[in-house]
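tool=predict chain=A
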Amino acid sequence: GLTHGLPVLAAETAPALLLARDAQPGQSPAGYLVSEKFDGVRALWDGHRLRLRSGGEVKAPAWFVAGLPPQALDGELWLGRGRFDELSALVRREHPVDAEWREVRYLVFELPGAPGSFAQRATALREVVAQTQHPALQAVAQQNLADAKALAQRLAEVVVQGGEGLVLHRADAPYVTGRSDVLLKLKPVQDADAVVMAHEPGQGKYAGLVGALVVRGVDGRLFRIGSGLTDAQRRSPPPLGSTVSYRWRGLTRTGLPRFATLWRVREPGL
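tool=predict ok
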């Protein structure tokens, strides 16, 4: 088996991780291994402790971490598609609730610091997971796809099933950290129109300006758009009753747009 591990760092030190760039439209999957992008909480196991991207320790029950292998692992804590808010609350609890953690999966996709190409590390990772026999530990499935059309089809399948998108990792890449073209994320960006119902005052750096637009979606429900506004729009926001277009990525558990961002103000009559 593998014997490498990561140095144990102070809890407040953010671990070095590989971060994805956005894939381009029409992206070819040639040379990449493709997996689902799981809507979870990124967690790094250093062989001793389970840590968040920020460096803070995950307050998981002792039994959850006791069964993890001596090898360093990188992955996502995950409850299921569309359950990010629930997972986020569960992970933040000062005192973990055993019954909740029984549902959590640790979906791993990388062996930090391991030798070889990503394809070789993915094979080694599957072996580590098989040997560990931890009920929560799963190796993320990686697949080769023939062309851009197959990639688009796979994305559509994942999205229809409530997934967030896809991840493309160069099969020949050594282990690296930082934001890199070695790793690409492919997510659908949806857009729609909404009517401005109110202006919410800003706070902090937006004090005296508009912090967010309260809008009514096509289904009649109200939600906030706080991102994507220019400084000029915060000073002089789209008037009440005007229509704006926004983009979002996925839905919250209550069916409202997640990460709603102002895209453009619809001119009357257009």
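The chain has a mean pLDDT of 90. The chain has six helices and 14 strands.
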